[in-house]
């Protein structure tokens, strides 16, 4: 079905890689926006990228950036997509405190630039638009579990930028009749997760410690609670949101919540290491029960100026209207991530490129 043409911003990220695979399998022609970088940044999608000299390839990459409106206009004009998935963002909450202006520009105004490109090109009735909204919008939570009607209270420059993106998406839907929807996605992880998000940082450390190439893992707030699912399930939800006759906003979540400490314990357990916790606050430590060695320590440098303490989503609306629910359990997610990182360490030690 070549009349289904998707443009994915953020195609080189975790979700972009899973979504591109999903859409190609469904017969879409897929275009992706990639940033110029001084080193290769297509590692997550190299297996689906074709030689550009081939003809009729189903996946095409375009250089671009959400901070560059003329570039976005040109790419949308060239591609003439039927669906746009706006996944590109400076997506690290802690980094957004270091680079607040850039984060606002890319994550907030970037969304506006794409919506304006649709309007300028007169594509309001021809393209459907998905905005990667986030559970970080709930921030200092006003209600648990969080659902579509829960008031927002963003707690970082990232979340404030995403709040603008959320509302400009709603506004362009109401003002110009664009089929524009927000997916309010709770944390979703995978072996493709960026290395500095807490789950992947933990699973990589577990693999390194188990292989004897790392001695310790330093973490920030062990008490933070998150609703963690698998990215593969969530990109299916994104697609379903755009297949609805009417645009709308949906929470995608598992409905379960766990602490960073619980994630850490389970990840070590997968590698056969049982952790015991001692001490309080910044002095809390995780030790290997078998050897007594301290493997986990708290480092306040990973604390955030304002933290989001508890996230737990209510995905009832997505279940009822989209027929969507998460498939991968928390245990399966942790196991898959630890196994993948342990395999990567083994390949590295054997001298095989990862
Ligand atoms: P990643 O950080 O893995 O990927 C972000 C993508 O955006 C990368 O392709 C990155 O390019 C690209 N990007 C960053 N800045 C720009 C820019 N200025 N212009 C163009 N492209 C840019 O994020 P995820 O895949 O995890 O998340 C996808 C989206 O969903 C993000 O918007 C995120 O904020 C949001 N989200 C994520 C959740 C999660 O749990 N994963 C939950 C809720 C929302 P490069 O590879 O070059 O860095
Ligand atoms: P989050 O993800 O901020 O929820 O944003 P992250 O994995 O960075 O943090 C989750 C929680 O873990 C605590 N934490 C640590 N976090 C990091 N990164 N590193 C540490 O060492 C550490 N120790 C404890 C954090 O304080 C936090 O409470 C992710 C991103 O994908 C966003 O783009 C997305 O919108 C949200 O999920 C939903």
Give a brief description.
The chain has 354 residues and is an alpha/beta fold.
What does this structure look like?
Helix 1 packs across helix 7, helix 2 (69-79) crosses helix 4 and helix 6 runs parallel beside helix 8 (260-270). The chain contains ten helices and 15 strands. The chain has helices spanning 14-25, 69-79, 93-98, 100-120, 157-176, 198-210, 231-242, 260-270, 316-322, 330-349, and strands spanning 5-9, 29-34, 59-63, 83-86, 128-134, 179-185, 188-189, 217-219, 225-226, 229-230, 249-252, 258-259, 275-278, 285-288, 294-298. The chain is globular and about 65 Å long. It folds into two domains: 5-191 and 227-256 and 310-328, NAD(P)-binding Rossmann-like Domain (Rossmann fold, 3-Layer(aba) Sandwich), CATH 3.40.50; 198-222 and 259-309 and 332-349, UDP-galactose 4-epimerase, domain 1 (Alpha-Beta Complex). 38% of the residues lie in helices and 18% in strands. The protein is an alpha/beta fold and 354 residues long. The longest helix is centred in the first third of the chain and has 21 residues, at 100-120. NADPH dihydro-nicotinamide-adenine-dinucleotide phosphate binds at residues 9-10, 12-16, 33, 35, 37, 41, 65-67, 87-91, 106, 132, 134, 185, 187-188, 194.
Chemical compounds bound to the protein: NADPH dihydro-nicotinamide-adenine-dinucleotide phosphate, guanosine-5'-diphosphate-rhamnose
Return the domain count: 2
Strand content: 15-25%
CATH topology of the largest domain: Rossmann fold
Rg measurement, Å? 21 Å
Spatially, the strands of the biggest sheet line up as: 3-2-1-4-5-6-11
Global outline = globular
Would you identify the CATH architecture of the largest domain? 3-Layer(aba) Sandwich
The number of helical elements comes to 10
At the fourth level of CATH, the homologous superfamily of the largest domain is NAD(P)-binding Rossmann-like Domain
Largest sheet: 7 strands, parallel
Q: Pick out the low-confidence regions.
A: none
Which percent bin holds the helix content? Answer: 25-40%
Structural class assignment:
alpha/beta
Order of helices and strands: EHEEHEHHEHEEHEEEHEEHEEEHH
CATH class wording of the largest domain: Alpha Beta
* Number of DSSP strand runs: 15
Distance between the termini: 35 Å
The average pLDDT is 97
EC number: 4.2.1.47
Domain NAD(P)-binding: 7-337
Protein name: GDP-mannose 4,6-dehydratase
Family: Belongs to the NAD(P)-dependent epimerase/dehydratase family. GDP-mannose 4,6-dehydratase subfamily.
């Amino acid at each position: 079905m070549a009349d289904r043409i998707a443009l994915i911003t953020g195609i080189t990220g975790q979700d972009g890689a899973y979504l591109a695979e999903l859409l190609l399998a469904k017969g879409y022609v897929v275009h992706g926006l990639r940033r110029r970088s001084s080193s290769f940044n297509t590692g997550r999608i190299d297996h689906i990228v074709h030689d550009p000299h081939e003809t009729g390839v189903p996946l095409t990459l375009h250089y671009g950036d959400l901070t560059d409106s003329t570039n976005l206009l040109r790419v949308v004009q060239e591609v003439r997509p039927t669906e746009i998935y706006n996944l590109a963002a400076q997506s690290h909450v802690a980094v957004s405190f270091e680079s607040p202006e850039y984060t606002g520009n890319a994550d907030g105004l970037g969304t506006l630039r794409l919506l304006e490109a649709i309007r300028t090109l007169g594509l309001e009735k021809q393209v459907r638009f998905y905005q990667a909204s986030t559970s970080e919008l709930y921030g200092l939570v006003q209600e648990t579990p969080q659902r579509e009607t829960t008031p927002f209270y963003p707690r970082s420059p990232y979340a404030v930028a995403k709040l603008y993106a959320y509302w400009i998406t709603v506004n362009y839907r109401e003002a110009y009749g664009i089929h524009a929807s927000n997916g309010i996605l709770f944390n979703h992880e995978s072996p493709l997760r960026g290395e500095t998000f807490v789950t992947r940082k933990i699973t990589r450390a577990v693999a390194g410690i188990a292989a004897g190439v790392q001695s310790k893992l330093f973490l920030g707030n062990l008490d933070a609670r998150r609703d963690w699912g698998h990215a593969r399930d969530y990109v299916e939800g994104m697609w379903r949101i755009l297949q609805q006759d009417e645009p709308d906003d949906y929470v995608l979540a598992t409905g379960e919540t766990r602490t960073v400490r619980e994630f850490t314990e389970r990840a070590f357990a997968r590698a056969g290491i049982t952790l015991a916790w001692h001490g309080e606050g910044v002095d809390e430590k995780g030790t290997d029960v078998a050897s007594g060695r301290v493997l986990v320590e708290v480092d306040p440098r990973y604390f955030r100026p304002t933290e989001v303490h508890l996230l737990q989503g209510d995905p009832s609306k997505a279940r009822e209207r989209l027929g969507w629910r998460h498939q991968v359990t928390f245990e399966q997610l942790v196991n898959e991530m630890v196994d993948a990182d342990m395999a990567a360490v083994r390949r590295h030690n054997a001298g095989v490129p990862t």
